[in-house]
Amino acid sequence: MKDWFKEGTPWIWFTGGTVAISLILVFGVLWLTAFQGLGYFWPGSVAEFTFIEKDGKPIRVIGEIRETEEVATRRLIESGFNIKTDAAFVSRSLVKLGNRDITGVDFRWFPRPLVSDVAFPQDLVTVERHEWGNFYGHLKQVKENGQVVAEGAAAMPELRRRVERANALFREILRIEKHDIGKVNYHIEQLRLRERKLQLNNALTDAAKAQIEAERTKRQGEFDALTQRLAELRKDIARDALAAEIMDGRVIEVPLAKVAEVYQANAMSTPQKVAHYVRKFWEFLTDDPREANTEGGIFPAIFGTVMMVILMSIVVTPLGVIAAVYMREYAKPGPLIRSIRISVNNLAGVPSIVYGVFGLGFFVYVLGHNIDHLFFPEALPAPTFGSPGILWASLTLAILTLPVVIVATEEGLSRVPRSIREGSLALGATKAETLWRTVLPIASPAMMTGLILAVARAAGEVAPLMLVGVVKLAPALPVDGFFPFVHLERKFMHLGFHIYDVGFQSPNVEAARPLVYATALLLVVVIVVLNLAAISLRNRLRERYKGLEGV
């Protein structure tokens, strides 16, 4: 046994077991996240059943059964339910009732002993709305301007056709509001800023003022025409409605202007459900959020996360490499360099929120404030760069991840053999040429390792971003068709903050919980994709200079 320990075999088994346990835990987290998140897009069957209330009165309930759990019978009896059973525990189901604008609640727990006559009628419809969440009921009629145009078996085909028409009109309205009117408002604002700039420079002549006023009148005419067009579209989209019977027996009309999609989940076949799943997942990736971020898609958050990481990488890589090259290749060893290295290592352990406070105080309030006074005085007192934005968020994260890049680059430079440097110098190359053409290419895989670690940390940070640019809902992306096309001063959405906002700030936690898992899984996928791209580049560089390290 003593010799067995001396050989190190137990430590090999211990190390291998620890690695195996770590991998199991990682894959377990990923599986749980995927299981909870990917099921969010599957069309759930809608149940209808009878439930006995606390006062003994039976009611009809319609909704999706989301989950079931065991609960102590005594706890339910103490809360007023009349449950007659000797069992210590009974099951209860969480049902998504929908119709939140009518009933005031979206989810409710129902003890199973008080539930009876559970059925899944095929005529129950699920109506996804642009606001107020889902609506459930028995489809009765389809109306046009208050007149019934279809009912009974003919109602659903007619409803699908009219929902497609309403969605086309809705997209046209959204395009006009977001793009056409946004473009006009942008040009009107530019005219205001031009006029203000001329006033500050004492160059606002009568001719310039007349020209600005003429352009403003032209833009105002375009705005009025678009407003009139919007009024016509809104009147047109309000033409149709559906009438459905809800669980309390009332027949409620739902304007199709508020409907995003309608389907009968209980009547759908498996291929239809799969097609629905794929479509909803694609909408999740490409659409804008709605309903306080608990419905719709998260494309702005994906775009903001990727753009912020790219900007951060563009800044942190040259800064980290230059700092590492100076300390390793040019600076003389001594107390100053040792203290700098100690400081760099300590900076890696500073809480990220401290970097956020620094970014807010220096980048936003000092640097951004001065940039506004120097280059954008006509926009004051409204800030341009003097408010949180994606540029300041990227710079803050660049400082946060800078120590990682410095340390990784120094490690790579230290592994380049001295003989390679001396051989280059012996052939007549200068020190700068040796560094640029020989040393840095060989150390480039280590630089990419630092970048990979920086991306992995920066993409998941949330705390500093809450201070320097991230918001719950960004009205416009940092990239659009207006000059200069890339607007680094704008606020942006981020997947990490989206998870926090939906999971902890949502007014409807139960409805938002599956979306939290789906967004978390997507954030992991985005980080993996970014890292794989960097790893692929690092492997190419490593193969190119294979055999030169450690020679």
Report what the structure shows:
It is a single chain. The chain is α+β, with helices and mostly antiparallel strands and 551 residues long. The protein folds into three domains: 46-120, no CATH class; 137-269; 304-544, MetI-like fold (Orthogonal Bundle), CATH 1.10.3720.10. 59% of the residues lie in helices and 15% in strands. A hairpin with a 5-residue loop joins strand 9 (240-245) and strand 10. The radius of gyration is 31 Å and the shape is flat. The model has no long low-confidence stretch (mean pLDDT 88).
Q: Mind summarizing the main beta sheet?
A: 6 strands, antiparallel
Helix content: 55-70%
Could you tell me the number of beta strands? 13
CATH class of the largest domain, please?
Mainly Alpha
Report how far the terminal alpha carbons are from each other.
41 Å
Please state the CA-atom Rg, rounded to the nearest Å: 31 Å
Low-confidence regions: none
Spatial shape: flat
The CATH homologous superfamily of the largest domain is named MetI-like
In the CATH hierarchy, the third-tier topology of the largest domain is known as MetI-like fold
Please state the average pLDDT score: 88
- Given the structure, what is the number of helices? 16
- Count of structural domains: 3
Topology as a string of helices (H) and strands (E): HHEEHEHEEEEEHHEEEHEEHHHHHHHHH
